[in-house]
Specification:
single chain; FAD-oxidoreductase_2; 2 domains; 21 strands; FAD/NAD(P)-binding domain; Flavocytochrome C3, Chain A, domain 1; elongated; alpha/beta
Length: about 475
């Protein structure tokens, strides 16, 4: 084996991963004086993990802050999290993330990230989420520029295969680089290599054969190799392997790496039917940012893991457009044929739904209480008849962003094992997010977890080696 760096240098900090959490750790440690190397498994063109597909950061604030309006308190933020996770969260860690998010936004701006006002459409997040100018790719590029200015050494196509642990202490990683196995030694390590969603076999082991029909909207380079290696060596795990950030995306999206543009925001203004032409859940349960992440699992439970979101011309301009054009028909009968749905069953579903709609005020950007009556399942908001041609439909499939099975950490981001804690191993980002996200998801919260714990891990690791 050979070593990265002159004369077999032992780095102060080895950062495994190249996304938001990894870069926040690397920058923080480098600013504290540590010699840092970042090992990114993707090629340079695809650097940044899932972070390059993101577009916003959920942030607590006690008054207007940067592009954020009004206030978003710790308690309200935590209640939002409890609602989507159904209470499956570590309150101590969750509140740590929420409280610290307020100081993160200025830090992000100080390190090259630029923000813009909330996007229009159904999101309505101007109070809770700060949107990146240029999206996640711009954020990733800004952080890489900052890291390199600080002297952080970055290696791409660096596929870490093993984390060396001796007597509960990190010693080195083994990485496939330029066709050979290379040993990279360090005084400390931050593991930020994401979940295992890129490994379809692992997904199928957890979910069953249905997982082979899932689409992976995030990076294909997160295969969970480092996660599995650490678990095999006795690291404590958190989270359920069947829980993940999974949304309903356009069924025409690529198998991997479709990103944010494949997401569909039309569900609240539609009826969603499965291949039998039947509805199966309340499309108007809550505002979309608090409910979009449940729809991946809902669709995953349907036959062939497929569903269809059906709207009429009244709703066509109410949501962010998809990268793909919808199917279009002048009649519902014609639409059923295009979608290969059982015509009679589909038409009966639409008719029953329409009869259950009632008069009332429709408000697309807020809960309006415009609900159906005598329809199962009910639609509790934005329920308007599907009766104005032309009619449109989008195919839905589960799109997995990241999995929640991960490494257990404490409030200092240090990784634990059965007998205590590793002396010099920290984790940040998706690889430890299962501590906070037991299930469900809040828009922008993954970036918040990664930013907060990335900075914590970098600070703690630098203090350890200093």
């Amino acid at each position: 084996m050979s070593s990265i760096g002159p004369d077999g240098i032992q780095w102060d900090l080895v950062v495994v991963g190249g996304g938001n959490a990894a870069l926040c750790a690397a920058i923080t440690a480098a600013e504290a004086g540590a010699r840092v190397v970042v090992l990114e498994s993707a090629p340079k063109t695809y650097r940044g993990g899932n972070s390059r597909h993101t577009r916003n950061f959920r942030c607590m604030h006690r008054g207007p802050l940067s592009v954020l309006t009004d206030e978003y308190s710790e308690d309200e933020y935590f209640e939002d999290l409890l609602r989507v996770t159904k209470g499956k969260t570590d309150e101590n860690l969750a509140r740590l993330v929420i409280r610290t998010s307020e100081e993160c936004l200025p830090w992000m701006e100080d390190h090259g990230v630029r923000f813009q006002p909330s996007l229009s459409g159904t999101l309505s997040l101007s109070r809770t989420n700060a949107f990146f100018l240029g999206g996640g790719k711009a954020l990733v590029n800004a952080y890489y520029n900052t890291a390199e200015d600080l002297g952080v050494q970055v290696h791409y196509d660096a596929d870490v295969r093993h984390v060396g642990i001796d007597a509960n202490r990190f010693t080195h990683v083994e990485v496939n680089l330029e066709g050979k196995t290379t040993r990279v030694a360090g005084k400390a390590v931050v593991l930020s290599s994401g979940g295992f969603q890129g490994d379809i076999d692992w997904l199928a082991d957890a979910w069953g054969p249905a997982a082979r029909n899932f689409l992976i909207r995030g990076t294909p380079y997160n295969k969970g190799v480092v996660l599995r290696d650490m678990l095999d060596q006795g690291a404590n795990s958190v989270g359920d392997p069947t829980q993940c950030h999974a949304v309903a995306i356009d069924g025409r999206a690529p198998k991997f790496d479709g990103g944010i543009v494949t997401r569909l925001d039309c569900v609240p203004f539609s009826i969603v039917v499965n291949q039998d032409g039947a509805r199966f859940y309340d499309e108007g349960e809550d505002v979309w940012p608090k409910r979009y992440a449940i729809w991946g699992r809902l669709v995953a439970a349907q036959p062939e893991q497929v569903a269809y979101s059906v709207i009429d011309s009244k709703s066509f301009d109410l949501f962010m457009p998809s990268v793909f054009r919808p199917e279009k028909a002048e009649t519902l009968e014609e639409l059923a044929g295009i979608l290969n749905l059982p015509k009679d069953a589909f038409l009966q579903t639409v008719d029953d739904f329409n009869k259950g709609c009632r008069d009332g005020d429709f408000h697309p950007t807020e809960l309006d209480g415009l609900a159906t009556t005598n329809v199962e399942p009910a639609k509790t908001n934005w329920a308007r008849p599907i009766d104005a041609p032309p009619y449109y439909a989008y195919q839905l499939r589960p799109g997995v962003t990241f999995t929640y099975l991960g490494l257990q950490v404490d409030e200092t981001a240090r990784v634990s094992h059965s007998d205590g804690q590793y002396e010099n191993v920290w984790a940040a980002g998706e690889i430890m997010a299962g501590s906070i996200l037991g299930e469900g998801y809040l828009a922008g919260f993954g970036m918040t977890i990664g930013t907060v714990f990335g900075r914590i891990a970098g600070k703690e690791a630098a203090a350890h080696v200093g």
